[in-house]
Amino acid sequence: MYTAETRAIEVSVEPVYLEDESSPDEHHYVWAYTVRITNRGLERVQLRNRYWRITDDFGRVQEVRGKGVVGVEPVIEPGKDFQYTSGAPIATPSGIMVGTYEMETPGGERFDVAIPAFSLDSPHRTMRLN
């Protein structure tokens, strides 16, 4: 589990490699990741936008931006959380993801919340020492 906190909003991520959906012979590796966003603050927030930076084993970067997550822009009340699962395919047996969520307060203030960097590791990765 990977965790980060920004302005009393905690984001935890747990990635899982999906062997059944991956095709290593075709350079197609797939992960699911479950995200839990917990509002430890005193006012509600609404998740408006997401930004992901996905880097594969070769250093190739893919950026993903969009409204909400999994088709919704959830409102998270103080003391509550929101959880969802999504997925990411890449062309190498490992990589890393990191990003931000743009949140909005009832007063219209918008701020970014860090999504912790997390590893995408499959059993197909060969270790290289130097």
From TrEMBL:
PROSITE patterns: APAG. Residues 3-127 form the ApaG domain. InterPro entries: ApaG_domain, ApaG_sf, Uncharacterised_ApaG. This is Protein ApaG. It comes from Inquilinus ginsengisoli. The gene is apaG.
